Structure formats: structure tokens, C-alpha cells
């Protein structure tokens, strides 16, 4: 057992009260209690922030300073974030303490020890009794039963063959293995015939109590502890919900265990296709994909299901969150899918923490309370070993019963088919403990800590480079990596950025080749730009344009040349606005005969586009606009000089005068 005693920084050790606290610490030590002493509330807060596990908090309380009330509340609040039921003792002088206590503080304190009246041995005895009660209710059902069973020290007369670890000690390699993991792992690895603990497969005894506790914490009607991972959990649900004559609705971005469930059951799938952006990040399934009309069209179009048009799908599944971390509004998704199916499965293997932080409100399967549920039967599968605190292979199935509920016996047959008759009890116990850790205030505290850390990390990265330096940096991402991870990392990031630029340059080169070919076809560029190979690629134009663009690229390496390159780029951008201005003029010339009654709308659109083009040109800068104008005049002159050659028709004024 461990006690944290926090003394007020205003309490002097040479006072009678200070000496009484010292005598109490000695009395606790004599009862084999570890005593941690802190000489200020700030220091005690730091100890609790470091997740120091304690069985009792004691603090001296004199109320001689105005800040003591606030410090005490903050200290107890920090304790209850992760250790909600730890007994709290107030140590003080009865006359001073009772005069200053308020109702809020009375509710936070479990016992009041008048340090100047009761003996140190008596107060220590009260503390030990309180810590014993705390420890008795601290552990979750299965882990508590497992520890008690281990304390009996029974011999093993059945499998596993290592007989509580003794078998491993008979050879050097086995001894190293035994010593590495420790004796408790092997003593707790036993066969399922131990009736004292109950049965994982029958959901009796401590195993059954553990699953009831999990259902309470996760907001389910029933929970099933799984030791073969969420792959096994998914296959269990599918085996219980469908047959080879059923139509089922699946997220196309599902886990392979969902596909395996199809193979096992023979059910016929139709798929909801998720979105994906240009970066390859997988987004959600859009609502229209979940609409009954869309799904019935897919059923009629698929060769697997076209004979089952009109048949109601028996099951639907959505991966939440997606494998790129995008979360669904599960309430809306459930409402949409409920129009099609009475059994909805949210595969939340990477999302078991969502219930415990308000930031995810309505974005997970087990929302609200089970008693308020009125709708389809909802399943959620959680890999407790992924993002909660459990050993590998630990998983849970959570069920909210509603329309299409599956009979317990039927579901349990599917469960046993994918479970094992030789479960490792350490995995079962870790599942039990993972639930306990998320219960009450600790679930919010643990998830909020991770969210805060992620936000702090982003802010730290954004603030690594001063704004003034960032404004003139030629490689801001490389500079950030260099400051965070060293020169090598900075060089790697800079190289990747350069590679991306070169790839972009290649794309623009290909586009420029087609532009040059089009100009050559119109007679505006030399004919060499129009030459193509057998595949229709303007090879000569690509080579010429590529050489020119490469020269420009290398010219940007010097500061002065870089400015000129920027000027050329800006002029090019301004010239892209010229076709838009011509288009605006063309729209103004079109009359009612083309647009009819819609002409006012087109005039408005034309006006907005025209204003934007003018604004964009003005915003480019005086120098850029001047050179654009000069270039435009040169192009106009060249066009006029080459008009006859291009069009192969004389100007009207050059035509012979017709004689009457």
C-alpha cells in the first residue's frame, strides 16, 4: 500500500501539528505502508500528474492562507482524474478546519483526522482499513478472481503442459523464457476446467461478470470478450447474422475479415463505395450510397443479386473510423441504413475510445444509453489491444438489441466457432483491465491527454520557425524538419520537396508541348512544334519546351535570376486571363436569341468574371502588367504581319477592285 501525504508549504515542521504529521508517517511505515511526502500542493500535484499510483491521499489543512482552498480542490481533482475512488484524508486542527470547511470540500473528503486529538496509530489504522476497502473494489471482476485464485497456489493436473511454468525451468532456454516473463504469467495460464473462475465460452462466473461490466462501461446491452482479435469478432457477427440466401450491404473499404465472413456464409454482397480525395486519403461513404433506392439499384445490377431484387438485406457494415481516421456521424449513418437493414455493424476496431470523450459525440455506435435505443440491432467491434490497454488479440463485441435481434444461443454458437477452448487468461484479464481503465473519469482523462498531446505537437511544429524566418525561407518544411530532427532529416525533406517540384515541372512540360503544337497547327509557331511521332506525341515541341523550361529552372538558383523567373511566371499567369476576358466580351455580344430569358443571369455572371479578371491583373503589380502589355503589343504586331500567311486569304483591302 502507498500513501501520499501533502503538507501545506505554510506548515512548519517544528510546530506541534507538523510533528504530529511526522508521527503519523512513522506509524504508517510500521504497518508496511509506503509513505511519499510532499512539502507543497504544487509538488503533490506534480506527483499525481506523473501517474503515481497511490492508495490514499492525506493532506494537512490549516486554512491560514487564502489560496489553500483552491489548491486542495485542484489536488483532489487531479487525483480523481485517474484514481477516482482513492480515499482522501484531511489532517488538521479541529477548531481551525471546521470553521473554514465548505460543502464542496466536505463532499471531496472521505475522512477527517484531527491530528492533535487522535493518536498516530489510530489514524494509521483507519487509513489502512480505508485502503483495504479501496483495493477490494479496485480490480475488475475477472482479474480480481484470477489473482485470488493464484493466491491459493493450487497444483495444475491438466493442460497446459508447462504446469504453471515448472516445465520451462527444466532446460536453460526454458529457464530464460520463464525468468523473462515472470512466474505469474505461467501460474495464471491454466485450462478452462477451473470452475472457480467460470467459463469464457459459457459466459459464467467471473468471465460473465467481466462481460456485464464491459457492457455497462461501453453502453451495450451485452458484450462478448474475444481473444482472437477483431477479425474473429467480425466473422462471429457475420456467421450469426446471415446465410447463403441473404443479401448483405458492405463498405467496399472493409477489413479482410468481412470478406472472409462472406466466404464462410455464402451471403451475396452489394457494396457501398467510399470517397477518396486526390491525395489517396480514404473518406466516408456518402449518404446517397446508403439510400434504399441506390442500394436496390445495385442489387438489381449485380450478377450476384439480380435475382433478389426487392429482398431486404439482412446485414450492413460500415468501417468507422476509416483507415485514414475519418469518422462518420454514426447516428446519421445508422438512420440511413436502418431503412434497408435491421442489423447494422460498425467495425470500430481502431475506434474503441470514442465513447469516452465528448469530442466524438454521435460519431460512434454505442451512443447514449442502451435503454433509450429504439431501432435496428447495432453491433460494434473494438480491438481493445489496438488503441486501448490490452494484450494483442484482445477484442470486444458490443450489441444494442433492437429489430432483427439475434437469439443468444445462435449467436453464442457462432462465437464458439471462432473462439478457442484454450484461451490465454492473461489476454482475458487484460481485456477486463482495459474496460476498468476507461470507466468513470479516467476514460475522459486518458483520451483528453492524447488529444491535447496531438494538438500540442501540431502547435510546436507550427511554432518551430519564427514568422520572420518562415516568410523568407526557401524550404520551410525542410527547415522545420532540420530543427526538430537534425540536418539529415532536413535534407531528406528538402529532397522530397524538390522531387515533388520536378514532378510538377514535368507535368507542366507535357502541357506546354500540347500548347505549342496547337499554336503551330494554327500557324502561330514554327511548323517544327507540330511534328508528332507515331503515337501522336509532339516530340520536337516537348524537347524544345523542356530545354527552355529547364534553363528557366536552373536560372532560378541565383537570387537575381530567380526574380526574373518570377516575373516571367507572373506574366504567364496574366496571359491566362486574356481568354477569360475575350469570353466575357463574347457573352456580352450574344443576344436574347441565344440566352432568351436567362440573359440577365448570364450578364451578371459575365460581370462578376470580368471584375475578377481585372482585379487579378491589378493585383499582379505594375511591373508585371507593363511587361504583359508590351508583350501583347509585340504579339499583335507579329500576328498582323503573318495574317496572310496564316489564313492564306488576302485582306479585304488587298482584293481586286470589282469594275462596274
UniProtKB/TrEMBL annotation:
The keyword Endoplasmic reticulum is annotated on this UniProt entry: no
Record-annotated membrane-spanning stretches: 489-511, 532-555, 567-589, 601-619, 625-643
Entry GO CC: cytosol; membrane
InterPro entries (UniProt xref): OKR_de-COase_N (IPR005308), Orn/lys/arg_de-COase (IPR011193), Orn/Lys/Arg_deCO2ase_major_dom (IPR000310), PyrdxlP-dep_Trfase (IPR015424), PyrdxlP-dep_Trfase_major (IPR015421)
Domain Orn/Lys/Arg decarboxylases family 1 pyridoxal-P attachment site: 381-395
GO molecular function, one term: arginine decarboxylase activity
Entry keyword annotation includes Membrane: yes
Biological process terms in GO annotation: L-arginine catabolic process
Family: Belongs to the Orn/Lys/Arg decarboxylase class-I family.
Full protein name: Amino acid permease
